């Protein structure tokens, strides 16, 4: 869709420069779980883009001294060279050379880091792949002035981010973003995400999503492998149908501010995701005992106080606590007194719906 063989640097030109983006993570309310082909989703998904959980990526570029074939890349994560990440990134950059053929002509230095501790077990592929995609689109625009129009820039960044990690395509937009064909959202596509900000009811615009770290251990099964196991899952077909149907209900609820229905869908989606993992072959469980304890406490607290506070889960053990700004003073003491003691090393991250990625000033070497 975005392949463009004409994006080559003319001989004699020696471009150098630096590009710096920070891009956030996101939490899906309708989950993407199951894919086909080159990173196409089996069902539509929609997420809140976060504010505090982000990746910052600095890309330095200069002409390649050795004009041999292939990607020339140095990579550092949190200031340290990381060969495993470097190899993965080279593979990804090689796969997108038809989109950015000039990548063959440059030497790239990528420095990346997350705002959250690596050990927190927070999926970082959404923030890291969206940050990288934004850097690459800015690079294309600096070299060829081909992405001057914001809408086109975002669409291409989302497309490229998707190729790196499906959920990353939604992080390009602030507020909410939807990915995957659905009748519920005009313009929704399997190729890239679309923003869902203008139609969103005010109550969701500063919704909270506190992340409670139930366990910092590495996941036993990666998301990539988890998506793969959906191919043999007996519940796959009804699940994809459910996500399609739910998308229509959720879009209504996002427009009219019915937080109760929103919460019921968010919780059921989280548990459905984990049920799909448990019913895969081989079966696996990513929730930990404290994830379940927290779920019970959240439901009890909601029952007793009638406050609209709900949970979500990513493909991991950590709880995402969703609630509107209006109840923050009631919810905070509950988190600190009852939930934080169940977090590993009492680790939790206060987060909320954010405005999306931001291009930053140049930094030093
Ligand atoms: C559970 O986007 O991490 O977070 O496309 O293989 O990189 P890949 O998978 P990834 O899957 C994450 C799925 C999820 C739900 C969601 O974000 O929609």
Would you give an account of this structure?
The chain folds into two domains: 183 residues, Ribosomal Protein S5, domain 2; 148 residues, GHMP kinase, C-terminal domain (Alpha-Beta Plaits), CATH 3.30.70. The longest helix has 21 residues. β2 and β3 form a beta hairpin. It has 365 residues and is of the alpha+beta class. The chain is globular, with a radius of gyration of 21 Å. The chain is 35% helix and 22% strand. α2 crosses α3 and α6 packs antiparallel against α7. The structure holds ligand DP6. The site of ligand DP6 has 17 residues, from α5.
Straight-line N-to-C gap: 35 Å
In the CATH hierarchy, the third-tier topology of the largest domain is known as Ribosomal Protein S5, domain 2
CATH class of the largest domain, named Alpha Beta
Second-tier CATH architecture of the largest domain: 2-Layer Sandwich
Q: Tags for this entry?
A:
four-stranded antiparallel beta sheet, binds ligand DP6, Ribosomal Protein S5, domain 2, 14 strands, Alpha-Beta Plaits, alpha+beta, globular, 9 helices, about 375 residues
Q: What secondary-structure arrangement, pairings included, does this model have?
A:
Layout: E1 17-30, E2 35-36, E3 40-41, E4 45-63, E5 72-77, E6 80-81, H1 83-95, E7 106-114, H2 125-144, H3 150-164, E8 176-179, E9 193-195, H4 202-205, E10 208-212, H5 223-229, H6 236-256, H7 259-278, H8 289-305, E11 310-313, E12 319-323, H9 328-339, E13 348-349, E14 358-359
Parallel strand pairs: 5-7
Antiparallel strand pairs: 1-4, 1-14, 2-3, 4-7, 4-8, 5-6, 8-9, 10-12, 10-13, 11-12
Helix pairs in contact: 2-3, 6-7
The structure holds ligand DP6.
Ligand DP6 binds next to helix 5.
